[in-house]
Amino acid sequence: MTNEMVYTTVIDELLITIPELKPLYAENTYIWFDDYLPYVVFGLVVVPTMEELLKYDWQSPVLKRIFDFIEIMMQSKGQVHIYV
């Protein structure tokens, strides 16, 4: 993952970094078909996963990778965090 994360590839980078999110992502693809927006994916996939892990498995390595990803995204020179 580079320090220049961009809006158009942030979801691909997310799913590569955290493959455990792929099943929930696939489950929700009917909603966005080919035109998915990162903020929608974060709202329907990332946030519910974080809520569940925080509630039932707060020491999960998956949760740590999600937080690490968000931290990198927030520091990105591509300013993806403004749009997600």
TrEMBL record:
Protein name as catalogued: DUF7674 domain-containing protein
Species in which this protein is naturally found: Cohnella ginsengisoli
Pfam families to which the protein is assigned, alphabetical: DUF7674
Domain DUF7674: 12-76
